[in-house]
């Protein structure tokens, strides 16, 4: 527990100034985090062997181009358009022709392409939220923090019925419901005072984002269970890896793209 608390304090000391400053500093920070997350995907070794270095390099470049893409469709990296991203994605698939199947298969390429798009779009949405408004970004993060925290605490205190035990044995229905209720109340309160007066649609969207965040948590728990690992990495002592900490956030940021015009 002591290690977990110290790690949390260190993370906050790094993250808060970066989020507050925004601009290219925030973009750079998100870019670094996205690469660390992709590294955890590489280390899953879904094919039970390392990926070729060239493949990892191309996947990493493609991820950065998606993460740092400007919203009108252009990247801040050398003016590369989404055509450049398409070329890199096709290259990831095309390289399977030149590598022995024991080193790099088509299924490996499809897995990497899916991972790059998933991480790229979600981290790009994170930048979009922050560049739109600091307080809107904080509102989204509060949904994740309070839902996740109180789902655990309420589950420990009142949990009697398992949510989906085959995926996450410790999560309970009571904890999930109360976590979403508290997360919605806290986030909506913040939104009302620092973003804009809340409406029924904002309340419903917040509740939906809270639920989707929990689904994201379960999705990444299933990935870990299928790969028989406890954490995606040991990067953050006491917390696991980037994907362990941002599993719910990734889902929330993807859903944010669907409700961007409502908030």
Summarize it.
With 263 residues, this protein is mainly α.
Radius of gyration: 19 Å
Average predicted confidence as pLDDT:
88
Please tally the helical runs, counting DSSP H or I stretches of 4 or more residues: 9
Strand content: under 5%
Structural category: mainly alpha
User: Element order, helices and strands?
Assistant: HHHHHHHHH
Shape: globular
Name the helicity range: over 70%
Q: Roughly how many Å apart are the termini?
A: 37 Å
> Which spans of ≥5 residues are poorly predicted at pLDDT below 50?
73-79
Q: Tell me the number of structural domains.
A: 2
How many strand segments?
0
Tell me the major beta sheet: none
Please explain how this structure is put together.
The chain has nine helices and no strands. The radius of gyration is 19 Å and the shape is globular. The protein starts with a helix and ends with a helix. With 263 residues, the protein is mainly alpha-helical. The longest helix has 27 residues, at 106-132. The protein folds into two domains: 1-132, no CATH class; 133-263, no CATH class.
């Amino acid at each position: 527990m002591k290690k977990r608390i110290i790690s949390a304090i260190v993370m906050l000391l790094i993250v808060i100034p970066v989020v507050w400053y925004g601009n290219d500093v925030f973009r750079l920070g998100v870019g670094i985090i996205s690469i660390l997350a992709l590294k955890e995907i590489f280390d899953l070794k879904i094919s039970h062997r390392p990926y070729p270095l060239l493949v990892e390099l191309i996947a990493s470049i493609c991820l950065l181009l998606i993460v740092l893409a400007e919203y009108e469709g252009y990247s801040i990296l050398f003016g590369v358009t989404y055509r450049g991203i398409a070329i890199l994605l096709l290259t990831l698939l095309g390289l399977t022709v030149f590598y022995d199947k024991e080193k790099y298969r088509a299924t490996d390429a499809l897995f990497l392409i899916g991972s790059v798009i998933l991480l790229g779009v979600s981290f790009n949405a994170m930048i979009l939220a922050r560049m739109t408004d600091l307080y809107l970004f904080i509102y989204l993060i509060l949904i994740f923090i309070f839902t996740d925290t109180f789902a655990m605490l309420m589950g420990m205190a009142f949990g009697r019925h398992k949510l989906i035990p085959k995926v996450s044995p410790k999560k309970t229905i009571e904890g999930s419901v109360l976590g979403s209720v508290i997360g919605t109340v806290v986030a909506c309160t913040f939104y009302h005072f620092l973003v804009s007066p809340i409406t029924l649609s904002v309340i419903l969207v917040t509740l939906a984002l809270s639920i989707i965040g929990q689904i994201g948590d379960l999705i990444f728990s299933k990935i870990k269970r299928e790969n028989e690992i406890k954490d995606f990495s040991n990067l953050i002592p006491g917390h696991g890896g980037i994907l362990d900490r941002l599993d719910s956030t990734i889902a929330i940021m993807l859903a944010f793209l669907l409700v961007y015009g409502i908030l």
